[in-house]
Design goal:
- The chain is mainly alpha-helical.
- It folds into two domains: about 1-240, no CATH class; about 245-475, no CATH class.
- Helix content is about 80%, strand content about 0%.
- It is built from 20 helices and no strands.
- The chain has helices at about 1-20, 25-55, 65-85, 90-95, 95-100, 105-140, 145-175, 175-180, 185-205, 205-230, 235-240, 245-260, 265-280, 280-310, 315-330, 340-360, 365-385, 390-425, 435-465, 465-475.
- Helix 2 crosses helix 6 (about 105-140) and helix 18 runs antiparallel to helix 19.
- It is flat.
Length: about 475
């Protein structure tokens, strides 16, 4: 193992020497590291003073963990240029040929660049955080608890790992440094949004969810590294000189994967949809098991926490919750009217949201949305039980009629998301990353239009016109 890692250290040492000689990288990084913590401290103090003028009653101590997240994030964005030009920059400078001509394996080249890409921003982030903590102590402010401080430092490293791994993957697929830098917004903006969500967890003080966020970021970064290595091709780096947005080629590739040789709807279902179903049979089995065990676990977990929380609510709040339960179960009330269009569009929107977040995260966030949908099902019946409503009749009358179509549609959607992530991280030397992506989108479209869309259509019709009638007979005979 030591011999296999030796080339990684050689590549890393070579990169470090190059970076330390480049003042255009070091100077902005040093300036930002030294100036941003004092600036953040001043901004936080002014924000607290402004809010307190209008009765905000804010304490600057509460902004310290949030400030640590932001201070750790900005040096990474500046140092991201090192990772973005790691491969494509050498190509433009004409030094990529000797590097690719070495007997090193692809993963050794990749990890050598990755180590240096993470080293610079992480050192800068930790130095900036240390400077900020020193300033906090000088102002007699309270530092975050030790466990939260550990989480913040790990989260900073996870952000650096995620952003640098994405930048290097972009560098391997770009043909110019300019193109790589333009694509950097697809790294910075999602991580910035992610930090906003994490800051909410910090303010809530929910340490368990923050650990889950850390695990999610690390898993996503690992998958990006896997994607980069899977689609790293030396010939691709040397052969392509310019990227072109060829809509004709994209449509030809997509339509060929979507329609194939099918010339009729029946043939399309038999050949194309059938082939895609065979591809996702393992994800389907995984999602089916997750649906069964997830809904049961959600039911029992919700049943345990409801009794201790019911006493905190008034009768008016409980009545409002009952109305929400009736709405969720598909029973019309005075305040809400469930229509076919509303149900169908809502379900389509939920599926598209799952696919959108799955697209951005190699399936991770999409599967999280799937788990939330399944968890709501189990929690709903726990609420029925807590409010004295018959659980089994409610399931048979309120969920089963349309659920026999809607639940399989959600499972197919989750399986498609899981399949997408698995395909992207699987090496395929015969196709470029763009071709793989288009073929996966075609498989998504086949499952969506051929199976999920018709199932949701039937489910909406039944839920709008049949389920309420059956449920009304059970709840209000």
């Amino acid at each position: 193992m030591k011999e296999k890692l030796k080339p990684v250290w050689l590549i890393a040492q070579r990169e470090l020497k190059d970076q330390f000689r480049d003042w255009r990288i070091l100077l902005p990084l040093i300036v930002l590291t030294l100036l941003f913590p004092p600036l953040m401290n001043i901004v936080a103090g002014e924000a607290v003073s402004f809010a307190n003028q209008y009765g905000g009653d804010l304490i600057i101590d509460r902004l310290v963990p949030f400030s640590i997240l932001i201070i750790g994030f900005f040096p990474v964005t500046v140092a991201l240029v090192v990772a973005l030009e790691s491969f494509v920059g050498e190509k433009e400078r004409g030094t990529i040929e000797p590097l690719l001509g070495t007997p090193f394996q692809d993963w050794q080249l990749y990890f050598g660049k990755l180590l240096v890409g993470i080293f610079f921003p992480l050192v800068a982030s930790y130095l900036a955080i240390a400077l900020y903590l020193f300033m906090v102590r000088q102002q007699d402010l309270s530092l975050p608890p030790a466990n939260l401080m550990v989480q913040l430092l790990i989260l900073t490293a996870a952000h650096a790992f995620l952003m640098v791994s994405g930048a290097i993957a972009i560098s391997t697929q770009s043909t110019s440094v300019r193109a790589a830098n333009l694509l950097a917004s697809f790294i910075v903006m999602p991580v910035a949004i992610l930090i906003q969500g994490e800051s909410v967890l910090v303010f809530w003080g929910n340490e368990n969810l923050l650990w889950l966020a850390i695990a999610g970021v690390l898993i996503m970064a690992t998958l990006i590294v896997r994607v980069g290595i899977s689609h790293f091709q030396r010939e691709y780096l040397l052969g392509r000189e310019i990227d072109s947005f060829n809509l004709k080629w994209m449509w030809k590739t997509f339509s060929g994967a979507f329609f194939g040789e099918a010339r009729s709807l029946l043939k399309w279902y038999q050949v194309q949809v059938g082939a895609t179903l065979r591809k996702i049979k393992t994800p389907l089995l995984i999602l089916l098991m997750l649906t069964i065990f997830g809904s049961i676990a959600s039911y029992y977990w919700t049943s345990q926490i409801i009794p201790s929380n019911l006493a905190e609510y008034s009768q008016e709040e409980i009545d409002g919750a009952m109305g929400d339960i009736q709405f969720a179960a598909g029973l019309p009330s005075d305040e809400t009217e469930i229509t076919f269009g509303f149900i169908f569009l809502h379900n389509i929107q939920a599926v598209l949201v799952m696919h959108f977040f799955g697209l951005l995260s190699f399936g991770i966030l999409g599967e999280l949305a799937f788990a939330i949908n399944i968890g709501v099902l189990g929690a709903l019946f726990a609420l029925f039980d807590a409010f004295g409503m018959p659980v089994l009749p409610m399931f048979l009358a309120g969920i089963l009629p349309h659920g026999i179509f809607e639940i399989p549609a959600i499972i197919f959607s989750g399986a498609g998301i899981l399949y997408f992530g698995a395909v992207l991280v699987t090496p395929d030397p015969s196709r470029t990353m763009g071709e793989v992506f288009i073929h996966v989108l075609a498989d998504w479209a086949k499952i969506g239009l051929g199976i999920i869309f018709p199932l949701l259509l039937l489910a909406a019709l039944i839920e709008a016109y049949i389920t309420p009638q059956i449920l009304a007979q059970v709840i209000m005979p």
